[in-house]
Amino acid sequence: MAGKVAARRAALRDTLIDLAEKQIEADGLSGLRARDLAKDAGCALGAIYNVFSDLNDLVLAVNARTFHRLGATVAEELADAPQDPTEQLVIMAQAYHHFAAANHNHWRALFDLERAPEEEAPDWYLHEMGLLFTYISTPLGIIFPDLDDEERLLMTRALFSSVHGIVLLSLDQASSGVPTGDIDKMLGLILRQLAGSKKI
Amino acid sequence: MAGKVAARRAALRDTLIDLAEKQIEADGLSGLRARDLAKDAGCALGAIYNVFSDLNDLVLAVNARTFHRLGATVAEELADAPQDPTEQLVIMAQAYHHFAAANHNHWRALFDLERAPEEEAPDWYLHEMGLLFTYISTPLGIIFPDLDDEERLLMTRALFSSVHGIVLLSLDQASSGVPTGDIDKMLGLILRQLAGSKKI
């Protein structure tokens, strides 16, 4: 009997993640309503809180899927990339841009989920960020062999944040006339200049 | 009589901007309620919509003040800066960081105000952004005299977005242990490397 209950809980959990994922895709994080989810899942409102501690906890589960898809996209693009570490950084940044544009609401949800100031990011989140950061820090280590570990970590974080900032503000401004092609051009401009190659 | 009515409207407008500014400072954009503002201003709820077309329009007026304060802060820091264009960029970026940290909710409201996809950013917003961009593009023109106008504009936008991204993600993560001093270090690392000076 305990096995059946656990299986039913796990099935409800997956159903709720599927439904929340679709809801966020369609209307963004702010469109998510526990009441709608319960209705679509055919369960009582309270049943949601038997499998998730709160709605944020459910969004984190959706975000976990988004992070995995993002990681897979970057890995796929890297597989075809040239050996040149600068070009690898450019290709990853552009893959990040294309993923963000194609999955806008899911991507926004990764960053827009509010945490209480005293609440730390969950371990799996830090782990996923760590994996993405390894993709960046490896070519950086080749481009800048003289950076010590602390500087390389700071540079990796600064570089990811820079790419994120360019994609974020550009996609926001896309409605006021920033052509999408310019975003890839900006990413290439900044990264090639950062890496010290004179291709700009 | 018309003059009296206009003066009363103008006074109510200023009062509402003052109140909204305080409200956003305390609780952020999401804490803003028309009902509370009307109560604090001692006016009817409908009176707000005689002076602003909607609540977003009121937030834009608060954001205009924030942009002016940001511009003044950057100008003040620049007045004491060395003549070196790279160091001017670093000083401005760090001034941006300190302003964002000290005025967190006001600064977030600059970017978190939602616009309908078909709605363009208002002219005054684009004008204020343009002024900030001039501060950046002038030293960039000295560092990279060979960039053509279009490339310089892209580089300016990319550089502002990079600084914004570093400040945004770092302040968000401040609760998970990113020391504030590291943010200034990251900004210096990225900008000095971008400018091709070898001080990192």
Automatic annotation (TrEMBL), chains A, B:
GO molecular function list: DNA binding
Entry keywords, A to Z: DNA-binding, Transcription, Transcription regulation
Presence of keyword Transcription regulation: yes
Pfam families, A to Z: TetR_C_33
Domain of life: Bacteria
Signal peptide: none
Domain named HTH tetR-type: residues: 10-70
PROSITE patterns: HTH_TETR_2 (PS50977)
InterPro entries according to UniProt: Homeodomain-like_sf, HTH_TetR, MT1864/Rv1816-like_C, Tet_transcr_reg_TetR-rel_C_sf
DNA-binding region: 33-52
Membrane-spanning ranges: none
Record protein name field: Transcriptional regulator, TetR family
Origin species: Cognatiyoonia koreensis
